Structures are given as structure tokens and as C-alpha cells.
């Protein structure tokens, strides 16, 4: 209850009835959660300023208390009213910007000892219960008084909802993912102004128009090449220089001077003596 005793001692001379003590307690809860009192009454005054203290005339009317608050680091204004009805005190808190209203009914005898109004150690009863009621029933939802904080929380909740929708979409087995081309790279499909561009690879097999073509050159395929260089010639088959350096070359026979003969252990194939084989 840090701070409540100092506040109670400061306004002790103004507390003459049980409802005064309850209003002082609720004011302390407002201050503790980031609000500042700017004055009493319903209408703003030129003397209004943010303060943790209660204004001088806060308890002048014992039947109707009216106090105005603003957030500590903003201009969001709230109007707090407390109406004494028999043995209860009915609180009403309205946000002037959103017109949102919350209320709380307090049974005065449950939380204040009327015979101990000038003794702080004994005046309040069941303070934790009263504090919980003020926090959950009277103060704005989620206990976020500052405008900037509410904006940040709203933005974060929106991002969390968007992330949740994205996860649900990714978990759908029937969902077709959207594919986007990489930045700086044009898609491979033909433009709408060139409807006859389809099948261009068949008409231009060497890919001179920038496409991939349809003829595979083993020397340009990107796979590792063997140590064989056709431009150096093939003994007994091609002289050196017959194949230009870097030219596409399909070997038409085994590379080497001696062609391996059949193994004596091999059986001749069927129809070996057939001259048409």
C-alpha cells in the first residue's frame, strides 16, 4: 500500500465520513496505474494541472463526488463520479474520447471502519479485495491508460492475428502457394503482346534469342568435363586443329590407337556367321 498512507495523511483534515475514505482509496488506485488528477467538477478550468494529489474542494459535496483525470503521458481524459446511495457508493468512470463507461458499487461498511477515520492503520478493511474490484471493474480494460501504449498493443495484436492467419493457410494441404519471381528476374512465360512466342525453344534450338535452346552441348552443360580435348586431335582419326577450340564435338569412335579385340572367353553371338549381321 505504498503511497496511500502519505496521501491519506495529506487529505486527513478533509475526510469526515466513510465515503470520503473510499473515494481517497479509489483516487490512489487511479494514480498508481498511471492517471493524474487535473481537477474537480465536470467542466475544465484554467487552473487544471496534472497532479497526484486530490484538489482542495474534492470532498465539498458528500453526496456526489466528481473528479477529472488524464493519462500521465497523454491527453486522454476521464471523468470519475461517485454517488452515495444509502450505505453504498456507486462509482462511474467515463472516457471522454471514446465515451466508454465502467461502474463499480462499493458497500462502504465492508471496507471502511467509520470509527477509525483519523487512524490510517485501522480505517481500511480488506484492502486487497477493494483494490481488485477497482482494477477489474472500474479501470479501463487491460489496465492500459496511456494512448501510446494502447496503440502499440493494438498494432501488436493485429500482427499476431495476421501471423495466425498465415500459419493456418500454410497448414492447409489443399492450398496452392503463391510463387513470386525473384527480384530483378523476369518470368520465363511469354508476354501478352507475343502470343506466338510459345514453342520458341523448338524454333530456335541453339537458344540464340536468350532462351535455353533444345540441343544439349556437353562442353557447355555445366558438368565437369574429362581431360579429353578434341581440338588437339585424335590419333589416326583427326589431325590437330580439325576441331576448333570450344566447339561442340560428339566423338564418333573410341579415342585411342588400338581398338580392343574380343575376349577369347566370350561366346560368339547368335547368327555370327550371318553376313547381314
Coarse structural class: alpha+beta
Number of strands: 5
CATH architectural category of the domain at 4-140: 3-Layer(aba) Sandwich
Overall shape: it is: rod-shaped
Low-confidence stretches: none
Oligomer: single chain
Helix content: 25-40%
β-sheet strand percentage: 5-15%
GO biological process, one term: proteasome-mediated ubiquitin-dependent protein catabolic process
Pfam families: PI31_Prot_C, PI31_Prot_N
Function: Plays an important role in control of proteasome function. Inhibits the hydrolysis of protein and peptide substrates by the 20S proteasome. Also inhibits the activation of the proteasome by the proteasome regulatory proteins PA700 and PA28.
Domain PI31 proteasome regulator N-terminal: 13-117
What does this protein structure show overall?
By secondary structure, this protein is α+β, with helices and mostly antiparallel strands. The chain has a domain at 4-140: Protein Transport Mog1p, Chain A. The chain is built from seven helices and five strands. It has helices at 4-10, 18-32, 108-111, 120-123, 127-138, 147-170, 200-203; strands at residues 35-40, 64-71, 77-85, 88-95, 101-107. A five-stranded antiparallel β-sheet has the order 1-2-3-4-5. A hairpin with a 5-residue loop joins strand 2 (64-71) and strand 3 (77-85). The longest helix is centred in the middle third of the chain and has 24 residues, at 147-170.
